[in-house]
Amino acid sequence: MQNKFRRQSGFTLVETILTIFILGILMLGTTLMIRDIFSVSEQQNGILSNTNQATMISSAFVNELRNATYGANGAYPINQATNNQIIFFSTAPKNNGTVSEIRYYLSGNTLYKGITNPAGSPLSYNGQPETITTLATQMSMSGNPLFYYYDGSYNGTGNPLAQPVNINIIRFVKINLVMLKDSTPNGTSTFTVSAGASIRNLKTNLGN
Description:
Order of helices and strands: HHEEEEEEEE
Strand content: 25-35%
Oligomer: single chain
Number of strands: 8
Radius of gyration: 29 Å
């Protein structure tokens, strides 16, 4: 009787295999859960990063646009105003008050900013090097304009000026950034950041 008890006290081969199988399932489930947690965390960080990026772009644009002024060569404050490109003259940050030619433009899904400083005597922007910076690579405009232009009657509501825009009547410009929430290959979700400002040196009845 004692020997029979000893033979039955250990795990059988089937029980051992079953135990290993269950442990394997538990380990796999834990691994997948940890992976999903990190994946969601990375996606959230990506969304926050893109949102912060869009906010910084729009903030810089608004500040430069508000300070738009006549160029060092006497050129009108706005040089070009299309759906996806605007060129204007403004005091560039960290540039000792130099009035630079600033260009924001969209090419494909990438938003760029170019700065050209005047040189020569008399001062001129023609032929001078343009410093181009990549601002965002995950734009998703889907044919929508990047810039909207308004005249002096704009009070926060109303339709933008139709293209081609007469640059001499522009008093308010709005930038509309539509960006992907994350950088995954199949990601299609987007978010929008809009901001606008009046040109202080040209505004008439605008309050901001």
